[in-house]
Design goal:
By secondary structure, the chain is an all-alpha fold. It is built from 4 helices and no strands.
Length: 96
């Protein structure tokens, strides 16, 4: 069905992070500050990115598992920072 299914699987965690950013920008422009409709998808996207990394680690065999662990070790902290700032962006001035 897909010509390169492995590349699509490997791109899933960074694409999830990109969706976080796009959702934060669009939802902040549309909804009010700290809107639950804007926040709840963000609360689900970061655990989804972690789950995608775990899926990639479990799916790999041999030394590729170590590569996937390193990929997760680099991407998850960066995604956490992006996730934190997207939540702050969607909250706006709700806490002040």
């Amino acid at each position: 069905m897909f010509p390169y299914p492995e590349q699509y699987r490997i791109a899933l965690p960074p694409m999830t992070t990109a969706v976080m950013v796009i959702w934060a920008i669009l939802s902040h422009a549309i909804f009010a500050d700290a809107s639950p409709f804007a926040l709840y998808p963000l609360f689900l996207l970061f655990p989804f990115a972690i789950g995608a990394h775990l899926y990639l680690i479990l799916l790999s065999k041999g030394m590729q598992r170590l590569d996937q662990c390193f990929y997760a070790l680099v991407h998850i902290p960066l995604a956490f920072v992006v996730w934190t700032f997207t939540i702050m962006h969607v909250n706006g001035h709700a806490f002040s």
